[in-house]
Amino acid sequence: MELKNDTLLKALLRQPVDRTPVWIMRQAGRYLPEYLKTRAEAGSFMNLCQSPELACEVTLQPLRRYDLDAAIIFSDILTIPDAMGLKLFFVTGEGPKFEHPIRSADDIRNLPRPQIDESLGYVMDAVALTRRELGGKVPLIGFSGSPWTLATYMIEGGSSKTFSKAKKLIYQDPQMAHMLLEKLAGTVTDYLNAQIESGAQAVQIFDTWGGALSSQAYKEFSLHYMAQIVSGLKRESEGRKVPVILFSKGCNTQLEALADTGCDALGVDWTITLDEARRRVGDRVALQGNLDPSILLAGKNVIRREVGYTLESFGQGDGHVFNLGHGITPDVDPEHLSALIGAVRELSPGYHS
Amino acid sequence: MELKNDTLLKALLRQPVDRTPVWIMRQAGRYLPEYLKTRAEAGSFMNLCQSPELACEVTLQPLRRYDLDAAIIFSDILTIPDAMGLKLFFVTGEGPKFEHPIRSADDIRNLPRPQIDESLGYVMDAVALTRRELGGKVPLIGFSGSPWTLATYMIEGGSSKTFSKAKKLIYQDPQMAHMLLEKLAGTVTDYLNAQIESGAQAVQIFDTWGGALSSQAYKEFSLHYMAQIVSGLKRESEGRKVPVILFSKGCNTQLEALADTGCDALGVDWTITLDEARRRVGDRVALQGNLDPSILLAGKNVIRREVGYTLESFGQGDGHVFNLGHGITPDVDPEHLSALIGAVRELSPGYHS
Fold this sequence. Notes:
The structure is a homodimer.
Chain A: H1 7-12, H2 33-42, H3 45-50, H4 52-65, E1 71-72, H5 79-86, E2 88-91, E3 95-98, H6 105-109, H7 116-119, H8 121-134, E4 140-145, H9 147-156, H10 164-172, H11 174-198, E5 202-207, H12 215-232, E6 236-237, E7 240-241, E8 244-248, H13 255-259, E9 265-268, H14 274-281, E10 286-291, H15 300-314, E11 320-324, H16 334-347
Parallel strand pairs in A: 1-4, 4-5, 5-8, 8-9, 9-10, 10-11
Antiparallel strand pairs in A: 2-3, 6-7
């Protein structure tokens, strides 16, 4: 099936495009009434993730409403620890939890490297099904959490504000921390390669909690493993390059180092201007971002103005993918996202020759 | 009363010192059993803040245990909104709340500029009493929240993860946001000047949530008002300069702009090395920080090593105040803080000539 809209893939590789492509982190999410309906039908969030048909359905929902340039497979970053035996569950209002969090060095030693086809086959089925259903309309993005980000949940047993258990491990017993991160890096590599083999046309690594680490610890415990994954990924599939995007939230002091990992593009949050980010990474990578998701709570005229500022901040030339600087929040009016996408479509051609 | 140890004041003004002074954000806090005892006796957190004798007592507690180079007056950043009529209260496990959060433009228009001597006299009494009790041992630091940080609590009604209400205001109705921030900036200026007149020998502005803003919004809605406060502060008292420290957490992309406000020193979190921060601000300001508080959860040998790295990262020369990159957490063993302070005392003279 020929890909009809390859603007995203070209922009991620800094190839010429005639407008700035746009997709939205968490675009299949709780702000959409149709998503809430499907989720309710699924019974639980885990059922939604583990049913290829339902995961495919919610992946496609935002594309029926909006003129988006990509789909991103609906899943959760914590499928990997779940497949490693930690048993993920969700408590409403409390976020994700594990029944068997990592509590000792033995827990790390005994952690299996999962057979992706067996324990995470449902993700590959969802990817393959979604590719078929997309019919070449737009490319499909696969994703994974970064080893460090996955490790924080596995050690803390769920979300955390201070990551004190995970940080205690890296400082007190760096060798065990590295054993855990090494296992995770291998699994993430397998997982993303399997997604690529199943049909993902670009992949993104979400390092949501990289920003909790000190500059030095970040390099040793997060960046290092993302670089290792990048170098282990299948970078071509179906005769096309498969771009790799790294998104390390709150790590703007690390942009140069991230650009040196060999990835194709960097996700950027809103605490740095694209102008400055571009100056710092030069022509090594494309940039993806970076509107503050809260701007979608303001009126449509404000959204349009802020989209304009973001495009202007990146400036003339290729290598920009429009996105938010983090996931869209559940309190957004779906009409407001229309306004954002419309503004990108309307205003961005002026920045490309 | 002559000040016997002026190492902190000198370091903040980048004057020569023979070792790096150290104090710890939230040094009077829940990790200390004697603090928990006094807090229990006070009945509530608000009673502890509002009783000058008890506030003085907990301010002095860490100085009895540790060889610190400063005391910081025990109080809460939300005393100002409380004095403006929002009525602060604390729910255990949920953080601060307001009985009357800001819900409308009229709430902002009607917000009074409090008479500091009346509604915040208890803070000034605590400052004056603590100065007397200190007997010149070390200097006393006064503090306030930044206008933006105070505004987030006032609009959200308490803590927040996304600050969506506060951000909606700045994007949807910037004029009202500026009216609120203008009122807060005036009040913070009065409040800090009153602390200086009551005996505070240095002051720090905590911009805990500046890092939630985009780069542009940060300049307009947070930095601008901190600069306004800095220019309105009494910078000399009792024949000595009163150094002003700005601490904007998560705002490392803004260090240059922060250094241009006219403040004397910048607090730095652990997501940037002091080496890089120093290169960026040059000799305009001193730097304070920046150990990850989680390092205090590791063993004493790790703490000592990380203190060494931090001192080495700043390098040779004056203008460094040792501190954490955020407040000390309740789960820290008090003996571990001893190890930190001991290591700074022992290792830092080598960096000064």
